């Protein structure tokens, strides 16, 4: 078992209390950076897609996992990011400016929506965000001169200082661009969570009444979380637009909102790592199911491809199983496995049984 | 000099007069206790001070500032910290994080600086951490520093909540039944801590408590309330021997006869 000897407060402030963890993170980033030399273009594109989903997942994780607010409308903010970025670039803006502006636009719109919306909570907030999504979708169709209406919009090729980041012609470059953005956002997110702003998010999530008693402005904190969440989602939307190349409003359907909610729930609510694990599962699962199905067809001659909707059923079953048996998500499962291994062979069977907290009355509220 | 002054405060929920015309003054450096039977309005008085409820009538001033109409999150920065009767900790965070959340009023960085984690943020984090460590040492929470709240026993949670209030570095601390549900030894410890808070930290303590042993041990003055009305005010001994107070707790012979 590893023990971190803490000799300075910085050990608690730093991301990792042990050099070991730091080593693995660096190793992971290095492997990810070398990936274009290792895997084929097909898989590289899949990984780029997963990275974009992780980015959007992080956006939603900040809101759902760390501030405890549900949003069913995050596809709208993906769309705002994608359309702002593409429209600005079509108007001649360089990517390096259009991209952050797209994030900012989504973030500002999110914060604006948040001012009335954050007074709602739970199912009411979910419905309100769903309404926002519907409104944004309509606006996109109506604002034809900018968005191309129903017909859609081309996302121009990204060029930074004369270097092309085209998704088809220079996939490796595009992949590296996604990787850099994801790494930067992850860093910023982690920084946020280890500082007082991040703690105020957690406070609002866990007990509003004591958050107030500690001097935290709950409405402002929630609006800030909403804004930051939407900004990150907007960035992901911009990348998604470039990844797809040509898109219209149908790309940003309600199903993307739901998929994103699944990413954060299955990944593990309240963990940044969960956004990545969830994104990997959600993007890889349809592929894995397809591969297994083809394998079954080739070896046993059973053609499940002829049954419509089977993929979706299997997909849903796996998700439901997860939510019932592992509510802490993939990352929660990983933490348990790690503890089990670290104290091997001393783990007891009931060690990870969920504890029921004593009843919390509503008297103070 | 009085630090907290409540003048004729009242709150009515529809026809229910939870608090009805209570006045008291808490002097600086004093330990002031509010006692009363269940439903007497003790916790409601706390919720009026921390502005969770809005008063129907009356006025509360703290340190010369009128807090009667202040938004609830503006109360803490004035130097009023509190605990809750039913423990309102952040269950999915560690003890350390909970205590650090108590430092919120002392933050000077904004969210952009936090995201970039500028050197300034790190300096401030170290300072918060140092203050929190002092609280951990004071309340002997060393063993629980990295533990999640959700897995802690009740007695420890109670102490963590006091710690979170102390981490704020307040002038006045409101303790809502600090000894309820604690063992004899644990409430003894709470008595020592309250003594130390007053003596070493120069805090003013306002507490609601049922345990008369604790109240007599630490309180300078006691206010007894019943049905939202004040019954008696004075030293613990005076209040305990007050016939109205005894009647409220034990009932009067006439009532028994009826």
UniProtKB/TrEMBL annotation, chain A:
Listed transmembrane segments: 23-44, 51-72, 92-115, 122-143, 174-192, 223-245, 251-269, 276-293, 313-331
Main localization, broad class: membrane
Topology versus the membrane: Multi-pass membrane protein
Cell location: Cell membrane
Keywords: Cell membrane, Membrane, Transmembrane, Transmembrane helix
Gene Ontology molecular functions: branched-chain amino acid transmembrane transporter activity
InterPro entries noted in UniProt: ABC_transp_permease, LivM-like
A family per Pfam: BPD_transp_2
Matches recorded under CDD domains: TM_PBP1_LivM_like (cd06581)
Keyword Cell membrane among UniProt keywords: yes
GO cellular component: plasma membrane
Protein name as catalogued: Branched-chain amino acid ABC transporter permease
UniProtKB/TrEMBL annotation, chain B:
Keywords of this entry: ATP-binding, Nucleotide-binding, Transport
Transmembrane segments: none
Cross-referenced InterPro entries: AAA+_ATPase (IPR003593), ABC_AA/LPS_Transport (IPR051120), ABC_transporter-like_ATP-bd (IPR003439), BCA_ABC_TP_C (IPR032823), P-loop_NTPase (IPR027417)
Pfam families noted in UniProt: ABC_tran, BCA_ABC_TP_C
ABC transporter domain location: 4-252
Gene Ontology CC entries for this record: plasma membrane
CDD domains on file: ABC_Mj1267_LivG_branched (cd03219)
Gene3D superfamilies named among the record's database cross-references: P-loop containing nucleotide triphosphate hydrolases
One GO molecular-function entry: ATP binding
SMART domains per record: AAA
Name of this protein: ABC transporter ATP-binding protein
Organism: Aliishimia ponticola
